[in-house]
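INFO  loader      accepted 1 record
INFO  loader      residues=208
INFO  predictor   begin
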Amino acid sequence: MTENTVQAKKLSRIQQRNRDIIMNAALDVFSQSGFRGATLDQIAEVAGLSKPNILYYFSGKEEIYVTLLNKMVTSWSDPLREFDADGEPIEEIVGYIERKMEMTREFPRESRLFANEIIQGGSRVMDHNVAVIKPLFEEKAALIQRWIDEGRLAPVDPQHLLTSIWATTQHYADFEAQTKVFLGQGDNVLDRGTSYLTDLFRKALQPE
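INFO  predictor   done
INFO  writer      dumping tokens
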């Protein structure tokens, strides 16, 4: 039974709970093992459900994986949509960095899931990226370029600016094992990281 078939039926409270349990367990497994390394047996074990129970809700691990990716990529782009064209440019960009760091704090597994998919070529998410995220990316890069042309930001490459923000903010989740070794653990690490990155980009973007 596919996800669409299940969704076409009105899910009972227990069915919705089971589906949420499966998605959460799959997020754990996929974020640690990637798509290739994950198995339905692993997902079933983490979920505490039988494999046939999982296959009632999803046709297989690929459907679970793609469902997770599409949901995550859409929500991951929400902070970028919040750029205000009428706002103060540096504050808008600093606010974006803060929102990205908050997502790193709240959704580290989702960040690692996406990173693993991209490392493996991104075939299951690239169509969505091209259709949905790329136009948004280009729109916001054009807005940043407008701010630069108006003399309200230092002359930087807008596209590389945005990808640099992605790299630096998501690093704390994607390389969590390494950051624990060098930076320690706990919320204080992300608080310090947020302060560092906002100060760094604020200085880099200040027009002369």
